[in-house]
Amino acid sequence: MTWVTGADGSPYGVTNLPYGVFRRNGGPSRIGVRIGSWVFDLAAAEAAELVLAAGTLCRPVLNDFMALGRPQWTAVRQRLTELLTDPAHRAAVEPLLVPLADVELLLPIEVADYVDFYSSEHHAANVGQIFRPGQPPLLPNWKHLPIGYHGRAGTVVVSGTPVTRPTGQRASAEGPVTGPSVRLDIEAEVGFVVGVPSALGDRVSVDDFAEHVFGVVLVNDWSARDIQAWEYQPLGPFLGKSFATSVSAWVTPLDALSDAFVPAPDQDPPVVDYLRDVPHLGLDLRLAVEWNGDQVSEPPFATMYWTPAQQLAHLTVNGASLRTGDLYASGTVSGPDRGQVGSFLELSWGGAEPVKVGDESRTFLNDGDTVTITATAPGPDGTTIALGEVSGTVRPAR
Amino acid sequence: MTWVTGADGSPYGVTNLPYGVFRRNGGPSRIGVRIGSWVFDLAAAEAAELVLAAGTLCRPVLNDFMALGRPQWTAVRQRLTELLTDPAHRAAVEPLLVPLADVELLLPIEVADYVDFYSSEHHAANVGQIFRPGQPPLLPNWKHLPIGYHGRAGTVVVSGTPVTRPTGQRASAEGPVTGPSVRLDIEAEVGFVVGVPSALGDRVSVDDFAEHVFGVVLVNDWSARDIQAWEYQPLGPFLGKSFATSVSAWVTPLDALSDAFVPAPDQDPPVVDYLRDVPHLGLDLRLAVEWNGDQVSEPPFATMYWTPAQQLAHLTVNGASLRTGDLYASGTVSGPDRGQVGSFLELSWGGAEPVKVGDESRTFLNDGDTVTITATAPGPDGTTIALGEVSGTVRPAR
């Protein structure tokens, strides 16, 4: 129970408390935590010594706070809970609550490296069937390691940022042509944000996931399928992805997701030692994809084959170091049914089966289209928490 | 002619003047410029108002200086030349020269995004013949666009940093096994460092290369071929590369390379509009690869099919923004002859033809091996300039 007006019963109640960065009237960037339809100004709270985090809450992004580590993350969360539930603090805290409607939300982290995995079996199999019909849907390595690649950290943008349709080369019967992408797509994903770094040469064990990972964002990994198809052999996706990757403004701390961990799908064949996570847990995040306001899909994150702990262990098994602000995304989240897929490539089955969006028919994205991805999860104490949203509108190519 | 003792006639004479970051006795990081076997302490020089660059020479990395742009880069270089050639300045400048032997060289830039291209036709064809014998050596897209992918910026390390042999999965007849890489390789490359950023959604034209690119580093893109071979389908190299990428400590400014631009190889078929660079110029950089002190190869950068201006235009044709500190590397530099290849995969033809290194026979790297890549180029006024070195010694897997 919180004393904050309207917050109890909301999916942004006191069991959620996601972190973000906001500003008012073009002022400086400030760290805040969301409660109901308010943002609690943590820069002001730390300045007033209502909460202490070594000054890191007065910075313009979450990175320094995230670098403090789990004991401090937990202590700050406990203190925030106390401030927002004990009516004794109301007089001090209430003036620091800013209406959400009055703020602009900014990119909450400075992204160090961005890695994108490919960890949904249903998605990988769908893509295999669409592009390699008649062949085994999964490549031989897929069940032995979480396939991933590096994306462009500098073009990670916050929800709400317009996405300009990319230009590039695509194959045609007459040879390559250059022009605006004609197969612009989304990928609904979940991203994990690293707080605590690791040293070059060290490996992070599956057991140390929660020591390094601060929290979760929603991700839309915009994808130009025609550019990607022409460029990706042999070194993988490049310009088909690097024009924009959108993330939610709110970073949900792992502490808010303690009731969302559920057994992940069995893995057969058995995985090699460094990927063996006991318990083998995924997250029961229920995504929803809206296309121009119509809900077109409900991707279930709990169906992901590879867990975030396995992804982190894989990412570092070669001794690659982690930095604060590293972001790794799950890959497109697709469940077994057509109504559960996380890309329009799958929803329209490679463009062959248009879908109804409002009164129109669609395969890939038109200029002016808006896609919004949201998610909910079981929260502490029987609550349901929301993970913000990642939204973007397509602008015409320049 | 410089008044600096021993610098005239050296490949680090006054026509070179590469930038770096150094420290003495574990002290703070300082920007310096190399002249002969000295480092001119530019932090001290700017503090003494001998040279002015908006305070950016007092920072711990080159990024803020690189963000100033070409007019300021040129003005600072002209001023440094004046200080180091006019004997009237000797009394003021000489106390700021530090013997190179007394300093530790550090990573000169904070790397934003790291992109690696694949732009040597000889290298791509060699790799094709080794891995796909009997098939066309180049994939259909190769001559239409400069193939590239994103690497891990957080594991870019400065020359001299030991490289720990990575552990990972590789394929075997009995299925995947995990262990230290048994095919650890190098890739001799040239890297281009972006100074001036671009806005999201904008494209950088081939004509604007010199407005954005500050200078050049040598790169060793260490590669675990066995890890790479198992993981790279379908999303490209990941852990086979991400454990370490070494760069030279010295960033050679483009202004020092004005006499090194030479016509690049003809491109057939003709390239699409946004890749058409007139004049089509590469750089006459002559690399040398030493393996435990034995020179084993002399890769000629002038043979690269795609030019750095084309790479930059391609990188941004989809609207991807540039940040100060972005680093893009050429891909392995290989000439037409076996003695000109930039990887040991090629030198040993896939491991089938061991090479003599000292008194020993080698295919890939053993623990304790040291690889050093150097380069020279025609400098201004008939001089020859050196581009520093990128060196690393292999440590056993942990």
Explain how this protein is built.
Chains A, B: Its cofactor is Ca(2+); Mg(2+). Chains A, B: GO terms for molecular function: fumarylacetoacetase activity. Chains A, B: It holds the Pfam family FAA_hydrolase_N. Two copies of one chain form a homodimer. Chain A is an alpha+beta fold and 398 residues long. Chain A folds into two domains: 19-106, Roll (SH3 type barrels), CATH 2.30.30.230; 114-395, Alpha-Beta Complex (Fumarylacetoacetate hydrolase, domain 2), CATH 3.90.850.10. Chain A is 16% helix and 28% strand. Chain A contains nine helices and 26 strands. The longest helix of chain A has 16 residues, at 70-85. The mean pLDDT of chain A is 97. Chains A and B meet through strand 7, strand 10 and helix 7 of A and strand 7, strand 10 and helix 7 of B.
Question: Any chance you could write out the topology, listing elements then pairs?
Answer:
The structure is a homodimer of 398-residue chains.
Chain A lengths: L18 E5 L6 E6 L2 E4 H6 L15 H4 L3 H16 L4 H4 L3 E3 L4 E3 L7 E4 L3 H11 L16 E4 L4 E3 L4 E2 L2 E4 L6 E4 L3 E2 L2 E7 L14 H4 E8 L2 E2 H7 L13 E3 L4 E2 L7 E3 L17 E3 L2 E6 L2 E4 L10 H9 L10 E3 L14 H4 L7 E3 L2 E3 L7 E9 L5 E12 L3
Parallel strand pairs in A: 6-22, 8-16, 9-26
Antiparallel strand pairs in A: 1-2, 1-5, 2-3, 3-4, 6-7, 10-11, 12-15, 13-14, 13-22, 14-16, 14-17, 18-19, 20-21, 20-25, 23-24, 25-26
Cofactor (chains A, B): Ca(2+); Mg(2+)
Pathway (chains A, B): Amino-acid degradation; L-phenylalanine degradation; acetoacetate and fumarate from L-phenylalanine: step 6/6
Organism (chains A, B): Micromonospora trifolii
